[in-house]
Amino acid sequence: MPRDAKFDVLFEPVRIGPKTARNRFYQVPHCNGMGRTFPSSMAAMRGVKAEGGWAVVSTEQIDIHPTGDITPATEGRLWSDQDIPYLARMVDAVHEHGSLALIELVHNGKWAANLYSREIPLFPTHMPVVMHNAPVQARAMDKADIRAYRRWHLDAARRAVAAGFDIVCCYAGHNLSLAGHFMLRRYNFRTDEYGGKLENRVRLFRELIQEAKDAIGDRTAIVARFAVDEMRGADGMEWDKEGREIVEMLAELPDLWDVNVAEWDNDSVTSRFGEEGSQEPFIRFVKTVTTKPVVGVGRYTTPDRMVSLIRSGVLDMIGAARPSIADPFLPRKIEEGRIADIRECIGCNICVGWDTSMAPMRCTQNPTKGEEWRRGWHPERIPAKSDEGAVLVVGAGPAGLEAALAAAQRGYRVTLAEAAEELGGRVRRESRLPGLNAWGRVRDYRVWQLSQMSHVEVFRASAMTAEQVLEFGARHVAIATGATWRRDGYGRAHQAPIPGTDLACVLTPDDVMDGWRPKGSVLVYDDDHYYMGGVIAELLAKEGFKVALATPESRVSIWTQHTLEQHRIQARLLGLGVEIVVTHRLTEIRAGAVSLACTYTGRPRELQADAVVMVTARLPVDALYQDLAADPNRLAAAGIAALRRIGDCHGPATIAAAVYEGHRFARELGEVLPDVPFRRELTGLSRDFRLP
Ligand code: ADP
Ligand code: SF4
């Protein structure tokens, strides 16, 4: 289908210094948990984005020197010529599809604890490092350090050219880079020409850009990436004060401005706390003070919104990290008039969560993310079916929907049976909780795709029994019947039932999502530590209940540190008047009260509560699977060659894991896999193993 002419503007080329981007889609630098540790995985992931139509494809942050070593994080590194080949692999993957490759050169200043290099970290002034609260301090750079740092940056820029990069990005964003740290009054107490008035504090950034331009600017474009606002008021950078002045000072120096807000949690705000385009008020001014092209981000997935950003003069290029992760083919789909096929990012930050866990990135919407090289999974292409058998999928949650879709894309005849009237499973229920509406996209995308396929039949309100599955006679069967929350208290802190959990006043998140409400005051007991405890407390507090939240952990929803939301969740609950009791285990529930115990001292504490919502752990709903699996002869007699349980029914986990399991089921139909079912990349052994 040809694209709508209104989207033509998105496919105009954009000149960036000596280079030309073939359209207005710009994948901004983003971490991915692969970097230098899993380099071929990283390179293939970037190549797929170029294939999907992103005209500029960027690296993650690339450390330029051992004094800025963020071990154990897995980001890129360009310390010496030794690092060039793996980065060149990424460049080649991007060039293969006609896109421009960008490298972001970074020195993290006080963010780098230098755990591997053992160098003393560098900063404008003496300051403890931030990473892991490590017992390490950064030292104030003297003039020689600044000269050395400029030289390292330039050396890295030259090496980037040797690796084949088209664009070098000088970085002053996210409170993560030395050049940015120098700009901030709260960090820079220097009295030399790099401190004091704004012009001095910007000097280092100006020098980095100017020196890169002078050395390589004839062949390579130079980008300034800058956070115009830190969203911390007068204590930090503000877009309408120094943020604006800085862009004005350097307006025509770089070949392009890539602007955003700091820190990372503000730039990559989750959909629970920020809408599409939430940065617009902060970055809107930039185009009024420079003639150079401007890139900005805002979890943009709507083509009409993108057109309006270009037409109204807010941006020249649509920047994206997460939308390009959820759908690497987003530009191509717009170009080909396939808007309904776009897999829209849901803003859950699971991608960030795996990166901050130092593991290869995963995506809730895109099960192939991180698997491009390792398993050879392409986000848009899937091998044709390997046999003529039909596929039956039981359960239409994220696992079942994705299993049905991917199997149908392979060409299998697919039947999807769902017990409920509505499709979506946990996503249907959870997307109705406060702030999680966008999560419904996991269901919507798949339900729409399935509705377009004539070889797929979907049966709603069809709870399947083992007999019905056997009678159905499909060759391949996936049981995706989900999981339910436990009521008995088993969890991370408790390996035995908690006394009183059999009382009628004890609810689970399933009960709350089903509409059950307690009477009187409520304790939410969170031994799960992801979003559910916090979100149930938020829901009930907003409905007017007196709510307390107790957790054995030191913070509410503590795992959401990885999705950059923890501080917002805690602040929201405090704002709603929720009483927060941390480092306490629940020891007993009685009528009208609960007993807690301090996790350190065991000291008891009583709390008045008329009801308790137990958010601890889940159990698979796998009776149907167990029933079927118990008798292989019965399966064989029914013509069932493969029976698999997938998603939460297999092992309760994230929605991302359920989607992945569904996809994997379909990919592996008819395959016999080795024990390690993916390619691995092992570090090349050094030839030099002489010991002193
Ligand atoms: P997952 O996250 O693994 O996809 P969900 O809990 O989201 O799991 O979805 C499981 C779905 O399976 C739910 O929609 C539920 O109604 C459905 N289901 C459970 N048992 C049956 C059954 N016997 N027959 C059909 N559907 C079922
Ligand atoms: Fe978007 Fe979530 Fe995928 Fe990240 S993991 S790209 S936030 S859908």
Helix share, percent = 25-40%
Query: What is the annotated CATH architecture of the largest domain?
Result: Alpha-Beta Barrel
Level-1 CATH class name of the largest domain: Alpha Beta
* Low-confidence region ranges: none
Which superfamily, in CATH terms, is the homologous superfamily of the largest domain? Aldolase class I
Q: Could you say what the CATH topology of the largest domain is called? A: TIM Barrel
Q: What's the average pLDDT?
A: 97
Span from first to last CA?
Answer: 67 Å
* Strand order, sheet with most strands: 3-4-6-10-11-12-13-14
Sheet-strand content, in percent, reads: 15-25%
Task: Note the topology.
Layout: E1 14-16, E2 19-21, E3 25-27, H1 39-51, E4 56-63, E5 76-77, H2 84-95, E6 100-106, E7 122-123, E8 127-128, E9 137-140, H3 143-163, E10 167-172, H4 178-183, H5 198-201, H6 203-216, E11 221-229, H7 242-249, E12 256-261, H8 264-267, H9 280-283, H10 286-289, E13 294-296, H11 303-311, E14 317-320, H12 322-326, H13 330-335, H14 350-356, E15 391-394, H15 398-409, E16 414-417, H16 426-430, H17 441-451, E17 456-459, H18 466-472, E18 476-479, E19 483-485, E20 506-507, H19 509-513, E21 522-526, H20 531-542, E22 547-550, H21 566-575, E23 579-581, E24 584-590, E25 593-598, E26 604-608, E27 611-615, E28 618-620, H22 623-629, H23 632-637, E29 642-645, H24 655-667
Helix pairs in contact: 1-2, 2-3, 3-6, 15-17, 15-24, 20-21
The structure holds adenosine-5'-diphosphate (ADP) and iron/sulfur cluster.
